[in-house]
Amino acid sequence: MYVFLQMLFVAATVAFTFDELWALQNSLWDQFLYPANLLQINATESSVFAENVQGRVDITRTFDGRELNNEYIFGLFSDPEHLSLVGIPTAYKITQFAANENIASATTIFTFNATSFNNTVVPVTIDTWILFNADGKIAQYDATFRWFGWLLDTLLGAAGRLLFNTTDPAETQTRLGDLLADTICQTHEDYCVGENVQYPSKAECVDFLANKTRFGKAYELGRNTLLCREVHEHMVRHRPEVHCPHIGPTGGDYCVDDKTYADVVTEIYFREPFIPVG
C-alpha cells in the first residue's frame, strides 16, 4: 500500500526544469516591485497565486487563499505616500537559488525605499521556499525576513533622526507609536464604517493603540501589538469587512497573543512537504 501511494504521489508531481523554476522565481519578484505590484493586489486569473494558496511569513502569520495573499504580499508595499515602516520595493537580486521538480528555494536581497523616512534606502533579505502547481502558480510559500530585528532597529533609528530629531530609542518608539496610532485610526475612520466599526471614536482608538497596546518586538507583527495593526492597516481599504477587526481592539484572528514560541515553531501548516520526490 505504501509503495502504491508513493507511485501515486510521483505520478501527480509537477516537474519543471531548473530554468523554468528560475523564470518563475524572477517573475514573482518582478511583480513584487513597485509599481508592478499594484496590478496584483486584486488579481484573479493573472495572480501569481493559486486560488487555494497557503503562505507563511515568519514575523507575521499564515495566510490562506489568493485574495488575502494578494493583499498582504502586494498591497502592503504599494503606497509610497502612506506612512509605512519599510516603504516600497524598487529592485532585487537573487543571491542563492536551488530548485527541483516544482520547488524553488531562494535568498533575495531587495532594495526598499522607506519613503516615510525621507526616502531612506535599505537592503532587505528575504529567504523563500516556494511550491508551484502545474500552472506555474504559487501553491505554497514559506518566507523569512533575515535579520529583521536589525532592520527594524535601523528603521527606528532613521525615524528618530529624520522625523523627530532624536537619537533616543525610547523617545523614537513613543513618538513613532503615536504617529502610527493616529494613521491607523484615521484609516479606521475612513473605511471601518457601519458594521465594521471597531472603536467608538478616533480619540478612543488612538488612546487604545498608543497607550494600551504594546509597540511590539521584531517577531511580533502577528501578535497583539501596534506593529501588527500597522501591517493590517495597509489592507483595510481593500476589504474592510475582513481587515477592520485586525486593527481593532480584539485584533481579529491575526493581532492576538494566542500562540507560544513552541506553538509557532512546531506548527504543521502546509498541505505538502517542501521536499522533492526521492
TrEMBL record:
Q: Which UniProt keywords apply?
A: Signal
Cleavable signal peptide: 1-23
Q: Which domain of life is it from?
A: Eukaryota
Q: What is this protein called?
A: Secreted protein
Q: What species is this protein from?
A: Aspergillus keveii
